[in-house]
Amino acid sequence: MNSKLTSLTKILLDFMYYAGIIVTILVPAIIKLYGNYNSYFAENILWLSIIFMLSGLLAILILQELRKMFKSVLADNCFVRENVISLKKMGTYSFGIALITCCRLFLYLTPAVLIVILVFVIAGLFSKVLSRVFDRAVTYKEENDLTI
Predict the structure, then answer these.
(1) What is the pLDDT along the chain (148 residues), one digit of tens a residue?
(2) DSSP structural state of residue 38
(3) Are 86 and 115 contacting, i.e. CB atoms less than 8 angstroms apart?
(4) C-alpha to C-alpha distance for 106 and 130, rounded to whole angstroms
C-alpha cells in the first residue's frame, strides 16, 4: 500500500510539473481563446498573461522543490539541509504567487482571487515554519550522527 502511494505521488508530482510547464507556456493562447467567451479576458490579454505566466512559473518552481524533496523521501533521508532550503524557497514562491495575484485585484475583483491570495499566504507561512522545524531536526540529526 505504501509503495503504491509513493508511486502514485511521484507520478502525480511529475505530471503536475510537466503539465504546468506546458500550460504556463500556453497561457497567452488560452487567455486569447477564452476571450472569445469572456470580454474581460479579451480586454486584458496582456496583463492577465503576465500575471498568470509569472504565477505559473512560481508554481512550477514549487513543484520542482517538492520533487527534490520527494527524492530524499525515496532515499529515506528526509532530514537534510537541502530540504530546509527547499521549504524556504517554497515559502518565498508562495508569497510571490500571493503578491502577483494581488495585482489582479486592480483588474477584476472576485472571491476566487481573494481565496487564492489567502491560500498562498497560508502555504507560504506553513512552508517557512516547517523549514524551521526541519532545520532543528537536521541539527539534532547531525549532532546525533557525530555522537555515534
Answers:
(1) 577 888 899 999 999 999 999 999 999 999 999 999 999 899 999 999 999 999 999 999 999 999 999 999 888 888 999 999 999 999 999 999 999 999 988 888 889 999 999 999 999 999 999 999 999 999 998 888 777 5
(2) -
(3) no
(4) 32
- The grid cell for 52 is 498568470
Rounded Cα distance between 88 and 2, Å, is 27
CB 93 within 8 A of CB 62: yes
* 3-state secondary structure (DSSP) of residue 79: coil
- pTM attached to this predicted model: 0.91
Report d(CA 114, CA 40) in Å as an integer: 18
Neighbour tally for 127: CB within 10 Å: 21
DSSP 110: -
The dihedral of CA 22, 30, 60, 130: what is its sign?
negative
**Please, how many CA atoms are within 13 Å of residue 39, restricted to the half-sphere of its CB?**
0
| Grid cell listed for 145 | 550522527
